[in-house]
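tool=predict chain=A
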Amino acid sequence: MAPFLESKAKTGRRKASLGRIPIFPYLLDMNLSRSLSTFLLASASVGTLSLTSCAQDVYQQPKQSQALRDVEILAADSMGGRLPNTPGHAKAQQYLLQRFKSIGLRPVGAQYQHSFTFTQRNSTTPQPGVNLVGLIQGKSEKVIVVSAHYDHVGTRNGKIYNGADDDASGIGAILALATHFQKQKPQHTLVFVAFDAEEQGLQGSKAFVANLPFAKERILLNVNLDMVSISEKNELYAAGTYHHPAFKPLLEQVKVPEGFNLRFGHDRPEQGPDDWTKQSDHGSFHAAQIPFIYFGVEDHPHYHQETDEFKNIHQAFYLKAVETILQAVQVLDKQLPM
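tool=predict ok
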């Protein structure tokens, strides 16, 4: 069992410059306040959930994974790098709509598409954006928002920036979580959001938080995923426990797969550019005083390069990351107040 370690890294973060559960069938299926903190700390003392180790043979057959298939499709050249308001971006949006429907997510409101407008950097012309929002109703009306962004930076000088890790990997993971929780109903209502225009300055999440489709008081936290599939060190970070320390003992209950490290950190103000608190869509929730946990990897040579392609993600690491994030959401769902 890999240990949980406190972050000591001093690696810069991407967005500073731009805006057991064993492996489950979804991986193989192709077709707060002070009172909250008190509750969490008390519940953490109850004991660790009984979780079994992951099945190693699954990692040896990654091509069977629907999560990997989703990443491969979203990071294909045909998507053109998923720059907002381009044909490739529209293809990605339509693919995700189909996946939301096939999983059985319920629209939040009249439809999955939640439209907004934003202005790109160095421009004064408003552009349309579309967040995709679906939910799985829990026993409680309290909400956990699970998010990732589906846009990327597009094509530059004839080179396609496919954004496999950034952030097709996060989208593949939230689809995997949605598939699982559709079959194993959660305690809390889970709202899954594919944000648009993250690369343009967190525009999709800013619009979502500014015009929430339900009362803000219902939201317990945001679990955001951005770049979770490439790590030479086999490390995934859970950032946010500096701001919300009551979540840490809950996350420490997660039993990580063999050879995998879940670390805490990259969330302290004194870290400067190494503080990821405002560097992806969870930053919009944080600004609105909504708690967050952010899962991501440290920067790597493929970040915002044309080499961020499906062939360069670490497939075994990615599947372990998806499993770990799923466990974390299960623990939070089970132990957060109803």
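The chain is about 30% helix and 20% strand. Confidence is low (pLDDT under 50) at residues 1-61.
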